Amino acid sequence: MGIVVDIRKRLESFDLRVSFEAGDETVALLGESGCGKSMTLRCIAGIETPDAGRIVVNGVTYFDAERGIDLSPQKRKTALLFQSYELFPHMTVADNIAAGLVGESAEVRRARVGRELERFGLAELSGRYPLQLSGGQQQRVALARMLAAEPPVLMLDEPFSALDAHLKAGLEQSLSVLFREFSGTVLYVSHDIDEAVRLSDRIAVVERGRVRDFCPAAQLIDRPRSVAALKLSGCKNIFAVEPAGSFQVRIPAWGIELNCGDEVPEGANAAGVRAFRLERADGPGSNAVRVRVAHAIDARFDRTYLLDLVANGPDAADASPTGDAAPVPGATPTVNANQAAGAVPAGARATGSEDQRSSEEASPARSGAWRENRLVWRVSTLSSDEEDLPQVGDELWLRIPPEHLYVVAEGPVAPAR
Predict the structure, then answer these.
(1) Exposed / middle / buried, residue 315 (Cβ in 10 Å: 0-12, 13-18, 19+)
(2) Is residue 357 classed as helix, strand or coil in its secondary structure?
(3) Angle made by CA atoms 40, 113, 62, in degrees to the nearest 5
(4) Structural domain spans, the chain
(5) Residue 147 and which of 153, 194, 309, 334 are 20 to 30 A apart at CA?
């Protein structure tokens, strides 16, 4: 038993073409705002109607364009939690929970409402109205209403978007337990990779209405297979590449070749490395690049560096290409490495006015240097002494570990299974 979704719907800016299957598990639909995640849930719930395709839940056909089947939302009995919770302001907590039990006997209604009040710790709030509740309490009421109806599919559309970090952390724990206990498919919409990893069994990466990747969370992090998966899984360094051997790729923007830990896929055209995977190196060597610190930002437990690529001297002249790099699929167009880094000789300090450098640092997207010609490096400040950390303007060598260089090939989008 489970859910089968294979639908198409024409939207204003793209065609929604989503295809996936899921069983008794939690699946996160991960993607940027406006990519079709929420529309997919609305089609499953019957709020929106696809142009073509079919939706089957636990063997029951909810929608089939060819056969003319389109069950009403009431007959589908799916549960969809909106970002705004959609509680009835004139009803008490208990009445809101019972609102989805139309057609059930009074005895069944009382039993299920009591069960959910107990499950979500709402018994003492049963007589209150939504405006008398906190955001977290309102969400618990909305979840209780969903579970009381005993739906075959549980769907949540970014349920934490309106909550502060402290409240979100507590509710994530509650939802994790709820998802494990729920007997059926849970579909969870998010644009937060960490949230998706914590709460889901598998993740469907959605980009412009297409499922680009569909795999367990660990695989998405350790072996992403598309540029969309790289971006949405938090990879900060993405660049265009060309195959240069079975285990090597060439980066046209840098003019160098990198060794890879895995065999290069056919048609490889992009690669990425996570900011925290970059390693300090003593000097030139395999997979080593010379960089200059352009900017640094401190967080609670780490420091993030924005690094300009620097020419590596006469013995590494190829690191200063004269041609433009091929664009990364879905990435912002970028400039040549010489333009971004200034191509200063080895051992030289950066020159130029502070105003020029500050302007570029303040708007890296406008300069086009975020991906191809700059690197983002994250260092733990808990395990490093301040005097050992580089400062703005310093030049250093970094190594890209082959085992953490993710090479992908953008190709036709296949249905997820």
Answers:
(1) exposed
(2) helix
(3) 25
(4) 3-223, 235-408
(5) 194
